[in-house]
Fold this protein.
Amino acid sequence: LADTLADVPARLPGALLGGHSERSEYVQISRIPEAGPGLRNVDPGNAINSKTPLNKLVGVVTPTDLHYERSHAGVPDLDPAKHRLLIHGSVSKPLVLTVDDLKAMPSVSRIHFIECTGNGWENWKKADPTLTVQNTHGLVSTNEWTGVPLRFLIDLVGKDRSSNWMLAEGGDGAGVDRSIPLTDEIMDEAIVAYGQNGEPLRPAHGFPIRLIMPGFEGNLHIKWLRRLKFGDQPWMTRWETARYTQLLANGKARQFQLRMETNSVITSPSGMMEIRSGYNRITGLAWSGHGKIAKVEVSTDDGKTWREAQLNHPVLPKAQARFQMDWEWDGKPTKIVSRSTDERGNLQPDRQSFLDQVGTNALFHYNAQQTWSIDTAGRVRNDLA
Amino acid sequence: MTWRRHAILGAILLDFFTSSAGAYEFGRPATPDEITLWDIDVRPDGKGLPEGSGTVAHGKEVYQMYCMACHGPNGQGGIKDRLVGGQGTLGSDKPIKTVGSYWPYATTLFDYIRRAMPYTAPGLLGADDTYAVAAYILNLNGLLPDNGKLDRESLPKVKMPNRDGFIPDAVFKVDDERQAPRKRGTAP
């Protein structure tokens, strides 16, 4: 097909201006609702999460409607005028706050990733070759969150100094609740948020208010927040005992492994894409619950040699960072893989070292390096190193 | 500006906000009665458990009416989480995590049923029915006799088989912090 500028359609007046901008009809992009590992293309009634199309996104900020979702009892329909936040327990002044009360308080805005602890769980035991990066890593997203610093609320109610734990509870059908250790880091960085990418939270993401816990398990970012209670020990809720604990090979389980570890994945080329020999640009995302990403390395020979990728700036703490690298593919079968290092020196482990540490039954907190294999036809497939 | 300096500045700003907060009133005091209405959490030591009681026998009736459709007869074989069995499988290649094999505290069972079950109508069961159905699930797991009964005294005393099966991350043992509080802004 001869490509000349004469073939480009002529300019014309366009559609009327509207109150809302829709995506182009040429852009096909959406999340995928899924159930557990290996349970894809499920009836929406059986879905437990909905994954972000990392393979179709650029930059680091996830479009609000494509931010991944994990809900435990559906998305409640909450009227902000009737919603209340109760803060009580070991405090001198238990309070009931309205959403307007919170909006009147001093606020902060921070760009952070949220990651479900189940992200990556498809690849614990095997690698289904038909998976895209949306299937393997679509349970992480980055948005800007606006709200009241937790520290402000703690001081407002006069938390007892001996209280080192906080129960955060949602207003969903399941009343999802988690015990949160009040480390200085958490008290300094946690936010009771009402804003998401410049607008009120979307219902799927906690409208009208949610907790933001930068760098920690997605499940701790309690959506539809309606209660904060201070105490001196964890409550041992179902989610921090029966659910989000990591079973090791010896049958014991890690508990309160709250921080999301250093992670990265190549989003292009990635699973189910096709590339041609010659010049290719490799790009992907890296993130760490410890802070900023310091370095991302990429191997195009199955981990034998590594080259440092370029990071797009600014690189923000506890947010996803975009990396890219150019690559001349010689057309021979190979495997490509990325590994990140954060500012505290934590290196994303290769799969075998990772499995040696935790076994294959942990289900959550999978952060091993992701390998994509490429065959002679340029077909990119999910693979194990 | 580096993030660290940013964080320090943020902390200073927060101090400013905090010191000036006394000048403003946000929200209203919570009354004891309304706190009771929402204060549904239960701790492993039993704190938060309500009055009332329930028997294994009654729990079977409650289970068959509200739970069996999803969790199957006798707590297994249903379309949702298996509740019974699996003891001895946690170290195998195919671990089966149930209330009996995995859950470390019986109090969590009461708390979770009361807050989240039945799925379509959470909060429907009263205290007596919740004790009863918890008793029945423990009975199915061999942790309570057929003539067993639970209340706020006996429930926290039920020793779950996997009570010692968890390794909490040391970094979050905030008890240690009480002795030596860290400086603001430093990560654990």
